[in-house]
Amino acid sequence: MYYSLWSRLILHFWALEAEKDAYGDDSEPDPVKYLEKAYQQTIDATSKPNEWFGTTTACGALLHTDTNTKPAHPILYVTQLGDSQILVIRPEEREVIYKTTEQWHWFDCPRQLGSNSPDVPEKNAVMDKITIAEDDIILAMSDGVVDNLWEHEVVDNVLQSMEKWKSGSVPQVMRSDEQSTYAGGMQFVAQELVKAARTIAQDPFAESPYMERAIEEGLSIEGGKLDDISVVAAVCKKRIGR
């Protein structure tokens, strides 16, 4: 049994389906359809004689362009199944302009894709379209982040990290070359957010969103929640010369 294989294969096949469609006609993207195909391909890859078991939540953000507007606007197609989260921050306003809604069967039992789960993309995945602007920051975070940091802590951490990066106060070893400035900055943002979430997760006396939800359910749980902590950060930027 190889539990992490499910999440890796889902992401691998999902990305391949999206890339394949990007080179097709100019029709609107369909991330849920891509996820459904990825789900079926993962089932095929993990069936007999291999029989690898596992489950995974899924969330993704696909950048597209609305060519029906003048000028054209970037559109984010966000797909969600489970309790991971996509968050879109508008730095100039220091606020969240979009976030996904967690999907649970019951407390601490999220919707998932995989063995022994009734959930499937076609029926359970939710897709939203969000008009975004240049400099908006998009975060994809596992529940190990959102269970340990409140939304305002995420926003503050991200904006502070960006300010550090832009000011040049980040050690040179952590900075990328000039052509990769934005990529390097987003990597630094993701790393700092992971560190902040891990600090709370390892503190048995910390107050956390997970503890708050548990108390609402009548459970006596204190401190952070030890869990997988993953962050992908991106910033919307125009291509040079466009």
Features:
single chain, 242 residues, alpha+beta, 2 domains, 4-stranded antiparallel beta sheet, 22% strand
**Average predicted local confidence, pLDDT:** 90
Instruction: Outline the biggest β-sheet.
Output: 4 strands, antiparallel
- Helix/strand-derived category reads alpha+beta
Low-confidence stretches: none
Rounded to the nearest angstrom, the distance between the terminal CA atoms is 49 Å
- What is the H/E order? HHEEEEEEEEHEEHHHHE
Based on CA atoms alone, the radius of gyration comes out at 19 Å
Number of alpha- plus pi-helical segments: 7
Note the quaternary state here. Answer: single chain
The outline comes out as globular
Helix content: 25-40%
Q: Name the beta content range.
A: 15-25%
Q: Give the spatial strand order of the biggest sheet.
A: 5-4-10-11
Give the number of DSSP strands. Answer: 11
**Number of self-contained structural domains:** 2
Can you walk me through this structure?
- The chain has 242 residues and is α+β, with helices and mostly antiparallel strands.
- Helix content is 37%, strand content 22%.
- The strands form four sheets. It has a four-stranded antiparallel beta sheet. The protein has a three-stranded antiparallel beta sheet with strand order 2-3-9.
